Amino acid sequence: MKRALVLVAATALATTAVHAQATSVAWHYQSVDHLAGQVQDHGVRLTWTPVRSSVVVVRDDRTVAALKPGATGWLDSAPLPGTHRYEVVRHDLTGPAQPLVVNAPAYLVGAASRDITPTGVVNQGGYGLGDGRLIPQAVVGRGGRDSAKGEHIKARAFVVDDGKNAIAIADIEVQGWFAKYEFGADGLQDMAAAVAKQVTRLPVGHIVIASDHSHAAPDTLGVWGGPNPGYMDLVKAQVVAAITDAYAQRGYADLKAGHSDASDLVYNQSCTEALNQSKTPDYPGPDVCATPGKDGMVRVVQATAPSGKHPLTWMVYAAHATAGGGNGVHGDWPQFLSDAMTTQYGGQGIAMVGALGGTQPCRTACAFTKPSNPGYNTKDRKTALVLNYGAHVAAALRTATPVSGPVLAVQGFIREPIVGPAVTALFTAGKYAGAELLRSHESPWVVGQTIRTVVGAVRIGGVVINTTPGEGFPRIRQDVEHSLGNQAQEVVQLGLANDQLGYLISPASYVPIIAAEVPVNDNIIFNVSPTIGDHVACADIRLISTLKLAPVVPPTCLGYGVVDASGDPLGQVPVGGITVP
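^ that's the sequence the OP posted. Answer follows.
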């Protein structure tokens, strides 16, 4: 039987330059007999009955390989999502060809990780303030920890490619990371630029790098004494390696996305439920909430290769990485769950934080936590967290639906006034308290009393990801979701993405209430501006409109936009920002 092979997927793609130089093929040659094709994880395997003459492999009317007589097969080892037509032809006979159709996944997915565990005693970030030289550690409740007694923290990354566009998302298991640093080229923007230099199909605007905000991980912001010498360079190199390796590991995969309601595992700090942080209720009611709303959904995206393996299981949840457990230096629940998902599902498990503003995790059970959680009665906190969160990952996957559509990404900038007194104090005099804020003070990142930060959006088919450069409130994601109506399958808010500017309170009307809670809630202390949360939400909505979606921009966004849409005049001022004594 004379057959040709046509490989069909969801999107088209031009021939890759990896193969032999393309030449036109006259279709009067006869195909080999019994031509068959199998889609594998990393390519398409063609097989046929051997012939005495040499043969040519043709993809999409172009020669991609010339083989000697007797060849029985060939692997197209550069998997390309799209519709492709293969034929293996011999030169000694002529005759017609009958196509064979094979369906391949529409995405390429790769994932990788690199170890970033520090050595020696390190400053951990998240609790108290400073390195102890001005404010005693006994007062602020923090101190150095020996990383040798801790766990292995990592930089984890994945890449999704539809053949036309590729995006990368990475997570660093540290307290936080700035877009740009005052000293050195180790900011998140520098990392993305280093990746883009190596992988041209991953421009800076297609790369999202976040941190997991663990309060048991190294301080890379400077607020708690800062990192050890050389550590920043190490992490940068490992993040770049993880992303580039994830790109190199890309293979065919189908994607599915789902969610599971885990609202009983986190509490809103402004609600009376915050008074019930133990299994036995301490507050009997009534339920009151000054700033309603929390994001309790566990959102999951999983990739499945033709072999049935899962190169990626990605989870996002809005629980502060203050849940505890583990030993010494660690990445808190995102690290614990990432490791557990890697073991359970194979490939790379990557857990990241979502909307962190105004919420905290139950450690591990609140009075309203459902006893049905598998870790409810587990004493070891790390084990309990993995059991509870892992059960919701499994539940989300059971009801997950296929993902389809283009891969697109966009990035922009916004500029906000620096209004928060605590942030201003850290910029100007933090170093005298052992709390030197290491973020760049230079233009365009800080100009006068204004600060510039990064906003962005990513689309993976029906999954829309809006990035928040800090600990965003859940209202940001809610506004994005409402703007899209039924256009999105899942809306995922990524926290501490591309920058870390503290709490992004939204809506702005919540600011006076949050400020009044300062004795028990530090959200207002680490807040740059009362309007930054709303500004981030509106900027993300406007950016999403460039991803072949049509969000409805709410009236409240009339005063907010993306400054680089019309230029950033302040960003052109060749002077530094807040004066440092």
